[in-house]
Design goal:
The complex is a heterotetramer, with two copies of chain A and two copies of chain B.
Chain A: E1 2-11, E2 14-24, E3 29-33, H1 40-47, E4 55-60, E5 63-66, H2 75-88, E6 89-92, H3 104-116, H4 120-133, H5 149-161, E7 167-171, H6 179-194, E8 198-202, H7 206-212, E9 215-220, E10 223-228, H8 230-235, H9 240-250
Parallel strand pairs in A: 3-8, 3-9, 6-7, 7-8
Antiparallel strand pairs in A: 1-2, 1-4, 4-5, 9-10
Helix pairs in contact in A: 3-4, 3-5, 4-5
Chain B: H1 3-23, H2 34-41, E1 43-48, E2 58-60, E3 63-68, H3 70-82, E4 85-90, H4 96-102, E5 107-108, E6 122-124, E7 129-138, E8 154-158, H5 162-170, E9 174-178, H6 183-189, E10 195-199, H7 200-207, E11 213-225, E12 228-230, H8 234-250, H9 252-259, H10 299-333, H11 336-351, H12 354-364, H13 374-399, H14 403-411, H15 416-446, H16 458-469, H17 472-500
Parallel strand pairs in B: 1-4, 1-5, 8-9, 8-10
Antiparallel strand pairs in B: 2-3, 6-12, 7-10, 7-11
The chains are: A alpha/beta, B alpha/beta.
Bound molecules: adenosine-5'-triphosphate (2 copies) and magnesium ion (MG) (2 copies).
One magnesium ion is lined by residues 40-41, 94, 171, 202 of chain A.
Chain lengths: 251, 508, 508, 251
């Protein structure tokens, strides 16, 4: 469903990705692991068109985003492509980015009612059931700043799911969650997967990664050092660098 | 901006008021025989209003402390005949007869028309002047030929004139009041008004040399000015009648009027009225009417002006908000050309004086065939000017919202437009409320500039009333309070709105 | 705020300029015998400057299209004697002799002093008026008794007068130029200036009735006005001399001057000069001097005005920024009472007109013993007014910064004060730059209000120059450009600063 | 070193703490665990005086903060108490709260130079060595918004340590860190502990908590359900609620 072809990206002439390739099949759950600053968040942002890149292209559901140095790059086209991609792909941010001027409920129904044109009532009942899923039904009328970190994280997840996307990108979805919640979110994601949702997750929680994913991608300084099933990666890492990284998890 | 003038005056008058406190003497001999009193004291106290009184009585522009005018010369001649000196008594025109009754002065002589409604309160001498008003129209316009034809039309006149009062009495006429003598004729040429109705001399000076305009009909509203004295002063009135007769016969009256360009054949009628137009009555005056002139009666007019100020301010602020938002958005998100255009708009409209912008809109655009009404020009001019300022405020507001908010909205499938409308602007609004309130309050006061294009708003109303009543200081305080009364509720509302929009994790 | 007047005029003049383009005729018969030309055409073309020309030549305030003044009457009498009509030619006073040489008109008669430096370029008739200037001081002040005593003092005068020129020629005098006739005397009473030096009639009108002031010394700077003609027009000059002689002998000249209150014993000297003060010369005029009057020579004066505007604006903005910051902080973090005081300050200063505030500072405070200089009052008045607006802008800026920033700073051991200074304000600054720039630009234009307290800034300089040269339109454009020239660099700098302070994760 | 006595706090009449007691000895490392919304962050904020409370008092290093409904509450006094407490107690926030208008280096030296009066040069060399400790020396001149989440987290830790506090409060310090970094931060904290630093950590990382702490406090709905050594809590939980919460960790 998502194909990344020869992706090159640099920040202020500091190269990050240098010709990266990655294929994410429909229905698969891919976890991106790797040390801090290795480019996990940036890769997710590129997939959603929030970050432009210099070379290569990313194709989501057949919609192609080209690097700005590519011949096929067409500014007018990008607009349409982005719209199509973002309708199908949801994203949960590391810093949540909830809308502070809206209640939790309004955060969730905002996009369904205004983008998808779903009726207020239907959107609200969907939102309530999503809030129940993340155990926050009683916070529906609170404002984001009245919530704890974990509560905000769960609202952000519910908000993304409300758009019924075909693929979801999660940036460290469990970092503010307590162990119980991790279970819950895991269950939610598993549900989604069983409904055919393609999922990409950047995470530092190895156990979470090994539990949920079909594919694990190990990133280091913008390069994919290893790509395989959780079993291969976690219990049979070929790469020394990887082994060192996983040592703590392996203990 | 009559500000300067107004406040120079109001300060002067404040000083005058203070000195009056020191030297004030109340005339307690009001009801003795005035003629005897005048002769014995050798002083004739003359009541008049010098403001807006050209060519009657006015301050000589080169020596503002000196009074000139044909009535000054007339009173001088009268005093000379009486063998006494003249003492000046400045009094608001509106309350001049009340003050006469109260005994503040001996005679009231200041373009006071001899009308039956004044009969119960004062006594008039025979007339000393025949006044008339003239209609001016566009040369190409054949609709108006008589004063009656003015009904249903838009007519320009000068404030505080007989013509204005006549127009208002005629009714069914939209009266545009100007303070400058040039503008009504300019607006007439531009078809903004249908006719100008003013004193014949003014009409002649301005309209005759202009081939686009013409005078129609005979001078209208002919009437008589007389000297008013207290009802019991029949002796004084008779003495004055004799003097007027003498001045007429010797030709001195004609000489005075000629010097002021006021003599015309109509004045011959003065010879016809050897008797006063009004019969003497022997009743003593009723003392009950001695009400001191109160400022409260000006309030309705001031409030009307304030309403216009509020109306103009609100409408132009609405325009400024809308246009400013468009400018801010094109400056932030538009392509290079749109960005340049909106930046240029902002720089030019901020950088040049509002008054030039107003003049170009109102007097410049007609040259390319676009003739705006005063109201439209006022709203457009103020709105387009303030839009430049608002645009910068909105830009600052939008830029203060973290990018993560836009990214979250976009990743939820919203278009840039929708994200701006639903996510960014509502958050930016709170930050922009205080500077917007600032500008709105400043706009209330800047809107007084539109008085240059014949709009009567609060400052203009003040100016008209103050020059008509000489109550500069009192009215000035009331006007300042009215301005405050407009801005303070706005402040309160803004503060409330701000609180409502409060985002929790912000500084206090 | 002479705005209104200025722009009414400038628009009028724009229209005049345009019509001149259509009907302009260049006088190509400049060098034929002018006397013959005048007699054959029956028209005497008279060059003068009507602005600021009372009582010489000026627009009648009641009929602005009509010219009045003693020189108008004098020229009328001369024309009558010549048996011709008068045609008016308005010309900037500064370039009146150049235009005479070029042949724009036949005679220049407009308070032109007969001085040796003019001898090479024009020919003068015998004098027609003896002028003089009068010193006024405070009654209690014995320091000044002669014009020489004015050295090292602060002296008020009116713009565009002989007195002003005399003061400037004397040197070592701080000259305060006023446009209103009341203010110099007011400032004199308040000890803001040491003396007033103006035309005797004005001095008499204002100072004589005021017990605080007195006239000292004899009228000074006696000199002669003459009629200027082109050097070759000896015949015309001799004819004019005869006419002046006749008008003197018949008493008509005295009558005219008396009517204008200008006759005094000094005028007897006119009889002494039967010959022109200057000998005729037979040289033909040098054609090389026919330079068209250029606007560029006004630039230094305008730039000086602009400098004052910039100075006042910058200093008062500094005050506004400092005081505004204090107000914003007390409003946000002060105790209940401080909060109330700063809120009241903000509401009152925003809600009432700036002009009232300026007047109270400048003319009101002296009543309680605090006499501010015009400059200090201007800075204080503008600064305190704008502080109210800035305070609200800062409050909005501070409130837009997330509370987490303050908390992080506090938890690092910073005091609230330090956190505000190092963490909150620097971040808030970026958001406040655009509205602050708005206000600074508006301040440039609002600062023209201080001209009411005898400060000559850009708008006032424009007003002085424009009324002296009648170049309203050209000078108006230059003035607008100068204002733009002040605000645009500010905009550019603000934009640069904004970019420098750009926080990465903000919207574009 | 930190004594919490009978702490009661409510948000908008929603009670959170209802008479909480906790003693934290000098040199101890206390981890606060518990489900999302249980009050961990709030408890930390109360200790640092960022959040006021209604009843009870908190004493830090002998400096007493009283609840606003307490008789001893004295507004003038509070100011001084807070100043003293905050000089001694550092805090690392869940959302980092780096100063966006300053480079990483300036973020770190700001408070030492302006509050402690340390010279610029000395503060900078301290800062560099702290950045080396968290492997970020090459980002010294970057701005916070140019950093990845984990990088920001580490800068926030370095910034707090630069003040050489006697106690540190960490709110989920490892949530954005990769496993290797967790080791590093753990080593840093252990170093601090060996230097006698008192440490309070709110975390969801049970293995981290069990590794580093001397005391573990289990919070649920604002109440301390259990308080003991990591061994007791993690391997011998008495409370059923706790056992359920820890089930995933125990796996
Ligand atoms: N400003 C506020 N107004 C109202 N309620 C608040 C506010 N701040 C926090 N709360 C509520 O207080 C409770 C405790 O919040 P706190 O942030 O302390 O939880 P936490 O234990 O840190 O959770 P997490 O593990 O998710 O960070 C939560 O239910 C939260 O919704
Ligand atoms: N706007 C930016 N400008 C310059 N450099 C940037 C910018 N954003 C990210 N970087 C750099 O790019 C690299 C990758 O960042 P990214 O956020 O993708 O890392 P990550 O893998 O998500 O790390 P973490 O696990 O800490 O979140 C980092 O070294 C970061 O400093
Ligand atoms: Mg990341
Ligand atoms: Mg928390």
């Amino acid at each position: 469903m998502i194909e990344i072809h020869n992706l090159s990206k640099q920040y202020d002439n500091q190269p990050l990705f240098k010709g990266l390739h990655l294929n994410i099949a429909k229905g698969s759950v891919v976890t991106l692991i790797g040390p801090s600053g290795s480019g996990k968040s940036t890769l997710l942002r590129c997939m959603n068109g929030l970050e432009s890149f210099q070379e290569g292209h990313i194709s989501v559901n057949g919609q192609k985003l080209y690097g700005i140095h590519e011949q096929n790059y067409n500014k007018a086209q990008v607009h349409l492509t982005l719209k199509n991609i973002r309708r199908k792909v949801g994203m949960v941010f590391q810093q949540f980015n909830l809308f502070p001027h809206m209640t939790v409920l309004h955060n969730i129904i905002e996009s369904p009612t205004h983008v998808l044109g779903i009726s207020q009532a239907e959107a609200e009942s969907n939102a309530i059931s999503l809030l129940q899923k993340v155990h926050l039904e009683e916070k529906a009328h609170s404002y984001p700043d009245q919530l704890s970190g974990g509560e905000q994280q769960r609202v952000a997840i519910a908000r993304s799911l409300a758009m019924k996307p075909e693929a979801m990108l999660f940036d460290e979805p469990t970092s503010s969650l307590d162990p119980e919640m991790i279970e819950e979110v895991l269950a939610v994601i598993k549900d989604l997967v069983s409904e055919g949702m393609t999922t990409v997750i950047a995470t530092h929680e190895m156990s979470f990664a090994s539990d949920v994913s079909t594919d694990v991608v190990f990133l280091e300084r913008g390069e994919i050092l290893e790509h395989g099933s959780p079993k291969d990666i976690f219990y049979n890492p070929k790469n020394d660098r990887m082994r060192a990284f996983l040592s703590r998890f392996m203990k | 901006m009559n500000y300067k003038l107004l406040f120079t005056r109001s300060i002067l008058l404040l000083q005058i008021c203070l000195s009056v406190l020191y030297f004030s003497t109340t005339n307690s001999f009001a009801h003795q025989n005035t003629l005897e009193k005048v002769k014995s004291t050798g002083v004739l106290i003359w009541g008049f209003d010098a403001e807006g009184g050209a060519p009657y009585v006015f301050h000589d522009p080169k020596h503002p402390s000196k009074l000139v005018g044909f009535e000054v010369e007339l009173v001088a001649a009268i005093a000379r005949e009486l063998g006494v000196k003249v003492q000046h008594f400045q009094n608001a025109w509106d309350s001049i007869l009340l003050s006469l009754q109260r005994g503040d002065f001996d005679i009231a002589l200041n373009g006071i028309e001899i009308t039956p409604d004044k009969e119960p309160s004062v006594l008039f001498t025979r007339p000393y002047y025949v006044y008339a008003e003239q209609i001016v129209v566009r040369a190409s316009d054949n609709r108006i030929n008589r004063p009656e034809d003015l009904r249903g039309k838009k007519v320009g006149t000068l404030y505080n004139t007989v013509a204005k009062r006549m127009l208002e009495e005629m009714g069914e006429i939209t009266v545009n009041i100007y303070s400058g003598q040039v503008e009504p004729f300019k607006d007439l040429s531009l078809s903004r008004i249908d006719a100008v109705f003013v004193d014949l001399p003014i009409a002649s000076y301005y309209a005759k040399p202009n081939p686009q305009l013409r005078l129609v009909g005979k001078p209208a509203g002919e009437g008589y000015y007389g000297i008013a004295v207290r009802k019991e002063d029949t002796a004084l009135a008779e003495e004055l009648n004799k003097i007027i007769e003498k001045l007429l016969r010797t030709g001195e009256l004609q000489k005075i009027y000629s010097r002021w360009g006021l003599w015309n054949t109509a004045q011959e009628k003065l010879f016809l009225h050897e008797e006063p137009l009004q019969k003497y009555t022997e009743n003593l005056p009723s003392v009950s009417e001695k009400v001191s002139p109160s400022v409260t009666k000006f309030l309705p007019t001031l409030l009307k002006g304030a309403l216009v100020t509020v109306g103009i301010s609100i409408l132009s602020m609405m325009l400024a908000v809308g246009l400013g938002l468009i400018l801010a958005i094109t400056r932030l998100y538009g392509n290079t050309w749109l960005q340049r255009i909106s930046t240029a708009y902002i720089e030019i409209y901020r950088g040049t004086p509002l008054l030039i912008q107003l003049y170009i809109l109102y007097y410049g655009l007609p040259n390319i065939g676009i003739t705006l009404s005063a109201f439209a020009a006022a709203i457009l001019g103020l709105g387009m000017n303030y839009a430049a300022y608002e645009a910068e405020i909105y830009r600052a507001g939008i830029q203060s919202i973290p990018k993560g908010q836009t990214e979250a909205a976009l990743s939820l499938g919203m278009s840039k437009r929708l994200a701006l409308k639903r996510i960014i602007l509502p958050q930016a609004l709170r930050i922009t409320i205080p500077p917007m309130t600032n500008d709105f309050i400043a706009l209330f006061k800047d809107s007084s500039l539109v008085s240059v294009i014949a709009m009567v708003e609060l400052t203009k109303s003040y100016s008209i009333l103050a020059s008509a009543s000489m109550n500069f200081f009192k009215l000035g305080i009331i006007t300042a309070l009215l301005y405050f009364g407009m801005s303070y509720p706005l402040s309160l509302y803004a503060r409330k709105l701000e609180k409502k929009l409060r985002l929790y994790d912000r500084n206090p």
